[in-house]
Amino acid sequence: MQCPFCHHAETRVIDSRLANEGEQVRRRRECAACGERFTTYESAVDLALPRIVKRDGSRETFSVDKLRAGVMRALEKRPVETVAIDAAVDRIRRRLRANGEREIDSRRLGDWVMEELRRLDQVAYIRFASVYREFEDVAAFRQEIERLEREPDPRDDTRPQLGLPGLGEDG
């Protein structure tokens, strides 16, 4: 690692810690020549992410950029904040990593994307579903919309909240 101050090639690691929910390694370094200290952030190894098995049987490396592009395409011109989109993409990536398998079927990944889109925006969900499930006609759209209307909205958290013991109605 080259020192950003004097450009000397020799530095030593003083401290290493996981950062960004384990996605990065934060390292404090010290230059052997000038003694300046600086911090580097290194991305965790992406080898833990499985390869994606496509419908035709071919395999490709998982790409977070491709995932984000697909989600963004479905959400184009929809009122969804970038922060919410990033959180959805991160949940999918964590799910892939936690899955522990070396390969995952693209249909399973697509189902996870649909779950996230359904939480974010129903129009984007239908857009994605129309391509992902290869809708052939208006009847397929209608059927999916009816199914969407029958199922509870994941954004509605209508479960009753538990009261705290010892507190009355007034809190």
Describe the structure.
The structure is a single chain. The protein is of the alpha+beta class and about 170 residues long. The protein has helices at about 65-75, 80-100, 105-120, 120-130, 140-150, and strands at about 10-20, 25-30, 35-45, 50-55, 60, 105. Helix 2 packs antiparallel against helix 3 and helix 4 (about 120-130) crosses helix 5 (about 140-150). The protein is elongated.
N- and C-termini, Cα separation? 56 Å
Strand order of the largest sheet: 1-2-3
Largest sheet: 3 strands, antiparallel
Helical percentage:
25-40%
Query: Low-confidence stretches at least 5 residues in length (pLDDT < 50)?
Result: 158-171
> What class would the helix/strand composition place it in?
alpha+beta
The count of helical stretches stands at 5
What's the gyration radius in Å? 23 Å
Overall pLDDT score: 83
Domains (count): 2
- Gross morphology is elongated
What percentage of the residues does DSSP assign to strands (E)?
15-25%
Secondary-structure element string: EEEEEHHEHHH
- The tally of strands reads 6
List the helices and strands and how they pair.
Elements: E1 11-19, E2 24-31, E3 37-43, E4 51-53, E5 59-61, H1 64-74, H2 82-99, E6 103-105, H3 106-120, H4 122-132, H5 138-150
Parallel strand pairs: 4-6
Antiparallel strand pairs: 1-2, 2-3, 4-5
Helix pairs in contact: 1-2, 1-4, 2-3, 3-4, 4-5
